[in-house]
Amino acid sequence: MSWISLALMSSSQEAEALSDALFELGALSVSIEDAHAGTDKEQPLFNEPGEAVDSLWHDSRVLALLGEDSDVEALLAQLQAHFDWPKLPPYEAIEVAEQDWVRLTQSQFDPIRISDRLWITPTWHEAPQDGSINLWLDPGLAFGTGSHPTTRLCLEWLDRHLPVGSSVLDYGCGSGILALAARKLGAAHVVGVDIDPQAIQASHDNASQNQVSIDFYLPDASPNGQYDVVVANILTNPLRTLAPLLAGHVRSGGQLVLSGILVEQVALVQEAYAPWFALQLADQREGWACLSGVKQG
């Protein structure tokens, strides 16, 4: 089976009405994009999350996916009559061959090497090497799969420094990737905390997929214990606000690992944690920093 992709140029005033008309005429899907996308004439549109965009691009392109048996000439004639166009706007109709879209998408993602032994591996791949430690996570998860520099910095710290048999708290766990890594790298007990219930569910799912036992909690339900290692990959302002709480979760002589910090904000975080830690720059990458330190006293 194949499809027909029909692209029509449109003004911003007419693009949405054209989209609706294409749906009424049997289009399987319709989208609107900037006709100059990818050029120096590209027009960015800005809006707050959850708010509608006030206007579309001045020059828009309306893309419709049609069934392989669609009569494109008849459809265009109906559009011309409906909108009373003196002539048809510029358009292009091309055949789209059937593809295994799942397999095509999967082929774009390979395992991510964190170290000689630690990998982030999509579930459809084989382990990249014998004896490797694999975090089985699939691209596209809402809470991240380790490609961001801040996550990699934390993973690399855990790979190099995590004591076997230690207890670990991953605060702001997201997908649970750091908690998973800690457990697979030899931590005896791991807890993950996040403010988002969907993150907790995603973390539970990922732990199950990786066949490891980890406890995940919302903040109000989390235990008040202390840990050998506390890791938090969040952002600078939340990390500063959480300083007393996170410090309280680190046992005396335990270690704190913080990331999500821009390099120019390192001093602000060090100052916030100074009553408990002499945080040092553990590593940095692409403008992001990872700090670590041992709890004093």
UniProtKB/TrEMBL annotation:
Example of a GO cellular component annotation carried by this entry: cytosol
Predominant location category: cytoplasm
Keywords: Cytoplasm, Methyltransferase, Ribonucleoprotein, Ribosomal protein, S-adenosyl-L-methionine, Transferase
UniProt xrefs under InterPro entries: Ribosomal_L11_MeTrfase_PrmA (IPR050078), Ribosomal_PrmA_MeTrfase (IPR004498), SAM-dependent_MTases_sf (IPR029063)
A single GO molecular function term of this UniProt record: protein-lysine N-methyltransferase activity
Short name of one Pfam family: PrmA
Localization in the cell: Cytoplasm
Residues that, per the record, bind S-adenosyl-L-methionine: 151, 172, 194, 233
Role of this protein: Methylates ribosomal protein L11.
Xref: HAMAP family: Methyltr_PrmA
Protein's recorded name: Ribosomal protein L11 methyltransferase
